[in-house]
Amino acid sequence: MLAFTAALLLLTPKHAQAIPRPLANCVERSDEPGVVQFHFGYGNQGSAVTFPVGPDNYFSPPPPNRGQPSDFATGFQMPSVVAPVLLAPPGIGSQISMRWILGGEEAVADLTLPGCDGMVWLGAWQPEQFYLSGDVVTFEGATWVATSFIEGGRPGEAEEWDPLVAPREPDSVAGQRKPKFNRRGVARVKDPNVEAGSVVLIQYADPRRKGRLRPTNVVRVRAGRFVARGEPRTRFTYVVHAAP
Hints:
Largest sheet: 4 strands, mixed
Radius of gyration: 23 Å
Order of helices and strands: HEEEEEEEEEEEEEEEEEEEE
Strand order of the largest sheet: 9-11-12-14
Number of helices: 1
Number of strands: 20
Shape: globular
Helix content: under 10%
C-alpha cells in the first residue's frame, strides 16, 4: 500500500518534471540574398532541466542539430535558436516551415510569423522581391505595410498589404545633409513638419556601413521633432507623413 501511494505521488503534476515549451518567435531577412531566419525560444516554468540534442530535442527538416541548447534554465529565453532557410526556387515561400520538437512539445515556424525587426522601411515596392510582416513600402503615392509574407502581390491588390498612409506626397523629406545616430545609437531630429501624430519612416543611407545593422526605431514623436534609435554613428534618411 505504501509503495502504491508513493507511485501515485510521483505521477501527480506537483511532482512531475516540467518540460520546457519551445516557441516560434519571429522571422527576419538574412544578409544573404534569398534567405530568411526563424527565431525560436523557449519557456520553462519548472526547474532547470537538460535535454541533450537527439530524439527529445531536434529540428525538422534536417539537420536535427541547429545550435539549440541542451540545458534549459527557468523562465523565458528569446531567442535561443536562429535557423536560416533558403527561399528557393522563388514562389515556394508559403510552403516553407520548420519544427522544433522538445520533450514531446513542438513549435512550428513559417513565414506568417511577425517580423523580428517590427516595421522596416524598404523604399519603393519591387515585384521580384519578397516581403515579411512589418515591411513598409511605397507604391503609387501610398505607403503600405505587409501583414504577412508576400511574394509578387501588388499593394492595393494582395490582401497581405494594408495601407499605412493614404496616397499623398510626404510632408517632409530629409535633405542633402542626412542625420546621424550618435555613439549611443540615438538621433534627435528637429523638423518643423513633424506633428505629434506624424508617421516617421527611417532608412539607412550610409554607404560606408555594410553588413547587418540594428533595426531603426522611432521612439518619440513631438511637434517639431522626433527621437529615433539605430546603428551608432550611421547616417540615415527619413520621410514624414501626417497622421493616418
